[in-house]
Amino acid sequence: MFFPRLLAGAATWSLFLFTTVLARGRAIVTNECPEPIYLWSVGGKISPQYTVAPSTSYSETFTHDPVSGGIAIKISPVDGGIFKPNVSQTIFAYNLDGEKVWYDMSDIFGDGFAGRTMTLKPSEPTCPEIVWGAGKQPAGSTVRLCGADGNLELTFCTGKCLPSWYPCGNNAPGDPRVCCTHCIGSHHCVAAP
Fold first, then answer.
1. How far apart are CA 35 and CA 55, in angstroms?
2. Structural domain boundaries of the chain?
3. What b/e sequence results for 53-64 when a residue is b if at least 16 CB atoms lie within 10 Å of its CB, and e otherwise?
4. Is 18 helix (H, G, I), strand (E, B) or coil?
5. Helix (H, G, I), strand (E, B) or coil at 93
6. String of b and e for 146-171 (b: at least 16 CB within 10 Å)?
7. CATH T-level topology, domain 23-159
8. CB 63 within 8 Å of CB 71
């Protein structure tokens, strides 16, 4: 009689462990910009480059990296950007800590998405979001904490338009782009002044 109960208990425990692993949230990067963005998931190793086309997303399940501890999703407006000198990167970092996840955003080498709203929004409504209204890092720390069973979604070009034109930050040499941020109505962009 003891052996069947032991097997039933083991099966229940296995199911619990399996569902616990499946309950992990995801880090999501959504591109609402009119051009592709490029990203790499960086921990102890650098992933291949992922191209996130307009109106698409990239996602990965929260992972604890055994070497670095956390993951830095590095995003650039330039193809191959993290391997080119002085090309800006926006970093969406997270660190899985048991049933919690620490998260933040930062920029290095300039503001490559300046003039474009970026929003890092947790799926859990009680967790704080991070908003960069003009694509620039606000003053102060943006490190936040949330449960690891929900998703964190970083959206580029949230709302698509801002009230004025703005250079696209520190463009790569020879990249003359100007971000479309001047609107008539909700999303109709007009030529730069």
1. 9
2. 23-159
3. eeeeebeeebeb
4. helix
5. strand
6. bebbbbbbbbbbbebbbeebbebbbb
7. Thaumatin (2.60.110)
8. yes
CB 91 within 8 Å of CB 75: yes
Name 106's bridge partners. 91
Which letter does DSSP use for residue 180 in this model?
Answer: -
Distance in angstroms (rounded) separating the CA atoms of residues 8 and 79: 53
DSSP helix, strand, coil percent of the chain (3-state; round to 5): 10, 40, 50
The C-alpha atoms of residue 157 and residue 162 are separated, in whole angstroms, by 9
pLDDT digits (tens, 9 = 90+) for 75-115: 999 999 999 998 999 999 999 999 999 999 999 988 888 87
Contact 107, 91 (CB under 8 A): yes
Joined tokens for residue 22:
């499946």
Two structure tokens written together for 108 = 């290095």
Question: What's the rounded Cα separation, in Å, for the pair 8 and 102?
Answer: 36
Residue type, 182: H
Dihedral of alpha carbons 16, 17, 22, 25, sign: positive
What single letter denotes the amino acid at residue 112? G
0.70 surpassed by pTM: yes
